[in-house]
Amino acid sequence: MLVNLISGDRPRSTILTILLLVVLVCLALAPFLFPGVRPLDTAARICVFILLVASYDLLLGYTGIVSFAHTMFFGFGAYGVALASIHMERGWDALLVGTLAGALAAAVVAFVIGLFSLRVRAIFFAMITLAVASAVAVLVSQLFQLTGGEDGLTYQIPRELTPAFRLGEVFGVRINGRILNYYLVFFTCLALFLVLLRIVNSPFGTVLEAIRENDFRAEAIGYRVVAYRTAASCLSAAMAAFAGSLYAIWLRYVGPDTTLSFEIMLDVLLMVVIGGMGTMYGAVLGAVIFVLAQNYLQTLMGAGAGLTQGLPLIPQLLDPNRWLMWLGILFVLSVYFFPTGIVGRLRTGK
Amino acid sequence: MSEPILQLDGVVTDIGRYHILKGVTLDVPRGQVTMLLGRNGVGKTTTLRTIMGLWRAKAGRILLEGQDMAPVPVSSRAALGIGFVPEDMGIFSDLTVEENMILATRSGPLDPARRDWLFAAFPPLRTFWRSEAGNLSGGQKQMLSIARAMAEERRLYLIDEPTKGLAPAIVSTMVGALRELKAQGASILMVEQNLSVARALGDRAAVMDDGAVVWAGAMAELSADPALQERLMGLSVEAH
Description:
The complex is a heterodimer. Chain A is mainly alpha-helical. Chain A is 73% helix and 4% strand.
């Protein structure tokens, strides 16, 4: 049954299986294992980014399409929830309408971009997506009255998902709406991740891999490459929008910096590469490592600097303000030692 | 004689600023093997790629059972029943042998009887069925490439140099499999440099030179006339 659930896509490495199980258990029990606001926030971000990175891997790793518009679709989902929550009554229907509208808008825009530009060479497609994403980011900043501009939007979500809603105690942990909100994010991300696994392991996914490898050949054996690429692009965009909606439900705030910035796009790209392109499980490991590093590397370095205070140079190198430098070094090392990503390395041993 | 399955009439193809095909006229009879022969660089591969739509014909007509192929996109040509084995084999290295075969069956799942027949013709495919195709040897990749075209019955097979660079033992496996395909009544247009293979399989022959077909007739006639071979190709069947 478990094999069916993961669509027969076994991790094919004992270490990888253990790592994935550890991640699953830690995320499933995060409110109980890591109590506190910050750990729960980190766990929710990990869930959202696993889905976002996996959806991008469908495009980059499985279809061979380089797009810079992925965070734009992420933003569509987030702004969909925000706008629906503001313009409709506070409630579940607003979340549902916002989520579906965001996903639909993302799929339609991906369809239009794909139809016009997936025929051209990969580099031109990447440039077109970059241009469209930049234009949308500028538009969101300019349309202040609708989007809140650079300040973004804050809104209310159903009371059941806020800390004010209290249910009692379980294993010494106070169960409130925030924890319910976390589980909404966790289970939705898990379900959508399994859907993505099903997609890449279906005959459709096999065709996408064939197209990635040799699009002329795929066309010659009868597959309409543009149609398949466009379909993959729409699916990937809709999934990114779902991730954006969940992020908006979790944060109760959307702004250009949290959902549309080019920095997030680069982060997603790095997570895919570090985890391993063309492997959905790579998205899991890439997102976990990256988000943990983003959230805790600074703290870890602060502790290291404190411990080595008597030594020359080392405390300065471990100064928490230099965390970005160390993050960069970590990425260079990971790409050097794991050219096929962590999952690729664990699977092949090379 | 019945209507040819494929007719090329004055086909002209340019690649960039180079004029490669300068008016290819050729009939491929139904249920026979037509060998496309000629020296390197005379346009044999370009002819197959033009039929497949991978190069656009600038002028002339390509008719498949009377249907003009000009408006038909590449993917639809495959759906019309043209099986193409390119010179570079074109296998998908990251996919398994099984996945490569499944991709090639457009009319439904791979027929088990057909699969068993292909296993008998190309035994390594059974051995490496679940392995990544990229790990196969050159000969095994070629077997997969041909088996993929044979995964279901096609109206026409276009095969580009199936024995190129292969060991003699693998060449004989290839010839055996193609003979079986021929015995089933398949229509095949095959580019081949190895004249002994051409003689073993071919019913008809068309010799190309400088982007055009300069001679067409029975393979037996060409085989029996060393002077003709020498004149057309600068080669002799007896030399192979």
